[in-house]
Amino acid sequence: MSDPKDEDAAARKARNGRNIALFVGLLAFVILIFIVTIARLSGNAASTGF
Amino acid sequence: MLKTSAPEFDPAAAAVPARWQDYVQLLKPRVMSLVVFTAVTGLFCANVPLNPVLAATAVLCIAVGAGAAGALNMWFDADIDAVMRRTRGRPVPAGRVQAADAAALGIGLSLASVGLMGLAVNLLAAGLLAFTIFFYAVVYTMWLKRKTPQNIVIGGLAGALPPAVGWAAASGTAPLNAWLLVAIIFFWTPPHFWALSLTMGDDYERAGVPMLPVTAGEAATRRQILIYSLILVPLAIVPAFTGLGGPVYLAVAALGGVGFLALATRLLTRAERAEAKRLFGFSILYLFLLFAALLGEHLFGVRALNL
After folding, report:
1. Contact A32/B20, CB-based, under 8 Å?
2. In 3D, which of B83, B84, B108, B85 has the Cα closest to residue B26?
3. What's the pTM value of the predicted model, to 2 decimals?
4. CA-to-CA distance for B47 and B172, rounded, in angstroms?
């Protein structure tokens, strides 16, 4: 049997990794929505002839 | 009747903590890369000026949608994956990710990718993407795979659709040339996949999956491989006559086709696992080169042949 403390450390490390990956993924999604919004807005603004 | 829940599956050791890489593996990154490649080819073949941001978003949506379909497949097929040598190390059968988590990831990413495609690109592309995910996760995985030896023939439509999704994303339409690309991948899938299944021994039999070598025998499978190859190879040359492919494409389709038929014929006469492996490897190279030729011609402005 391995030491339960080691298992805790491994589990904690895995959880931290999952949290960071989720953070990066959500942040990227927010930035993507922003950029897409700007792209769509500028395209539509250009076509309405203002 | 469709089953509404995943088959019974008891992971061996559920105590292993999931790393974020396990969730990436649920998205089948290698399948995703081929999907992205064929979708990008469809996107550029549309010959429409593209907003780079929206084009990149469309490709991302297709990639994530393909990944979502992969996660749903790994959720539902965990019981099959657990008994097959090729797939038993996948996150769910290996006990690193709970089946329910794979399902949640697949559904969440499906909604996100289709939703974003609809809002940012256009509704035709979003609809085709949704249909692709549905076809792979529900029609192929939940229904056909366990029922009929025609599973991968019909189910192959899901893997064939990405060029049409890319084309629709670029132009808002899906003309005949887009469906020609779909048809090429559709007829490529059976010889490709059956060659793979010929190298896998009794894995599918033990998993209870009615793949053609299990139900009809290996000799019949080799005949079917040749029949589909005889449809595929001429079909792959057609784009040179429809204003889609140029001289490079024609050369690749003709030479690659000769190689494909030679290997399929050899497999018929020599019933060796090494021959099946060779055809499987060549089939990937063949499809890659066909689409690379089209993509290259459209990127560098090589004119399509006017035959």
Report:
1. no
2. B108
3. 0.90
4. 12
Residue B112: its chain A contacts at CB < 8 A? 29
A29/B53 Cβ within 8 A:
no
Cβ-Cβ pairs closer than 8 A, A with B, add up to 35
What was the ipTM of the complex prediction?
Answer: 0.83
Q: Place domain B23-173 in its CATH homologous superfamily.
A: UbiA prenyltransferase (1.10.357.140)
CB B304 within 8 Å of CB B244: yes
Contact B23 A18 (CB under 8 A): yes
Domain ranges of chain B: 23-173, 175-307
Residue by residue, pLDDT tens for chain B (307 residues) are 444 556 666 555 456 788 999 999 999 999 999 999 999 999 999 999 989 999 999 999 999 999 999 999 999 999 999 999 889 999 999 999 999 999 999 999 999 999 999 999 999 999 999 999 999 999 999 999 999 999 999 999 999 999 999 999 999 999 999 999 999 999 999 999 999 999 987 889 899 899 999 999 999 999 999 999 999 999 999 999 999 999 999 999 999 999 999 999 999 999 889 999 999 999 999 999 999 999 999 999 888 886 6
- Residues of A whose CB is below 8 A from B23: 18, 21
- Angle, to 10 degrees, between the axis of helix B99-116 and the axis of helix A4-48? 10
